[in-house]
Amino acid sequence: MTTVAAYAAPAAKAPLERTTIERRAVRENDVLIEIKFAGICHSDIHQAREGWGEALFPMVPGHEIAGVVTEVGPAVTKFAVGDRVGVGCMVDSCRVCENCAAGLEQYCTDGNTGTYNALDRNGEPTYGGYSTHIVVDEAFTVRIPDGLALDEAAPLLCAGITTYSPLRHWNAGPGKKVAILGMGGLGHMGVKIAHALGAEVTVLSQSLRKRDDGLKLGADHYYATSDPETFTELRGTFDLILSTVSAPLDLDAHLSLLRSDGAFVNVGAPEEPVSLNLFSVIGGRKTLAGSGIGGIEETQEMLDFCAAHGLGAEIELISAAEINEAYERVLASDVRYRFVIDTATI
């Protein structure tokens, strides 16, 4: 065991504070990673404040981790000391179920092991990336290409793969009209990736406040959902709408924007239940779906794609002492577009 510095929430809704945690000794297939940067995801806030249900405390959030390997176990073959690596939202799975065998570890039928706020296969709590070091099995570690700066790469381990996976699954590309609902930490990466895939991209946001940013990042069109005319003008337009919004929506209104056989895919997860009139999907044979992150192979594919297209996240680099302020700013939509912690300040 090794003692390392971290920032943790001692209890639900409590401010995060500096502390120390224990990391396990490096096992046969493990890598020890010196964390350089950790992104702040809205999921961190949901979990630290028990918005998604009962959680484990003390909690060290953080599942957007970029760093450098400093030690490897004797059986490690994928990585060497000095490699630039990342860790996302999960650090283990059963590895034998149908989904794991298909490279869909995120949908492990036995439940994947979250990077934080989870119990590992030995019943020990997991702690995330708001810390100086982490020990992870090489099978759940990915390589960060040299073409990506580590600070801009960190948010790709959640925001990048969470948008890349459904965009690929629902075939965003040339000839497809794709709407990204929400222009935040997830949404801005959705715009970049959908554009790079060749789709015609529209941003749907509450206001036009971020319109210039959206167009700069690759959107072809930008509309405000607060304007009722938007739903009249765009009715029946889109092949795919990717919702990154973590607040309840009028699903019936948004489903009206789809073409026949279109799909409305949720990657944002509101804390409250939502309602739906089933005629909104029956008419037009529309799909209402959800998507999680991606498997390890797809996450590596996403990182390579982003490196090839120069797609890093748009970030605000902060010190660890600014984490609590950053949480409040995320809730106020006052970040462009992802806070990233310089873990050297922990």
Automatic annotation (TrEMBL):
<keyword id="KW-0479">Metal-binding</keyword>
<feature type="domain" description="Enoyl reductase (ER)">
    <location>
        <begin position="14"/>
        <end position="341"/>
    </location>
</feature>
<dbReference type="InterPro" id="IPR013154">
    <property type="entry name" value="ADH-like_N"/>
</dbReference>
<dbReference type="Pfam" id="PF08240">
    <property type="entry name" value="ADH_N"/>
</dbReference>
<dbReference type="InterPro" id="IPR002328">
    <property type="entry name" value="ADH_Zn_CS"/>
</dbReference>
<dbReference type="InterPro" id="IPR011032">
    <property type="entry name" value="GroES-like_sf"/>
</dbReference>
<dbReference type="InterPro" id="IPR047109">
    <property type="entry name" value="CAD-like"/>
</dbReference>
<comment type="similarity">
    <text>Belongs to the zinc-containing alcohol dehydrogenase family.</text>
</comment>
<dbReference type="InterPro" id="IPR020843">
    <property type="entry name" value="ER"/>
</dbReference>
<dbReference type="GO" id="GO:0008270">
    <property type="term" value="F:zinc ion binding"/>
</dbReference>
<dbReference type="InterPro" id="IPR036291">
    <property type="entry name" value="NAD(P)-bd_dom_sf"/>
</dbReference>
<dbReference type="InterPro" id="IPR013149">
    <property type="entry name" value="ADH-like_C"/>
</dbReference>
<keyword id="KW-0560">Oxidoreductase</keyword>
<dbReference type="Pfam" id="PF00107">
    <property type="entry name" value="ADH_zinc_N"/>
</dbReference>
<dbReference type="GO" id="GO:0008106">
    <property type="term" value="F:alcohol dehydrogenase (NADP+) activity"/>
</dbReference>
<protein>
    <recommendedName>
        <fullName>alcohol dehydrogenase (NADP(+))</fullName>
        <ecNumber>1.1.1.2</ecNumber>
    </recommendedName>
</protein>
<keyword id="KW-0862">Zinc</keyword>
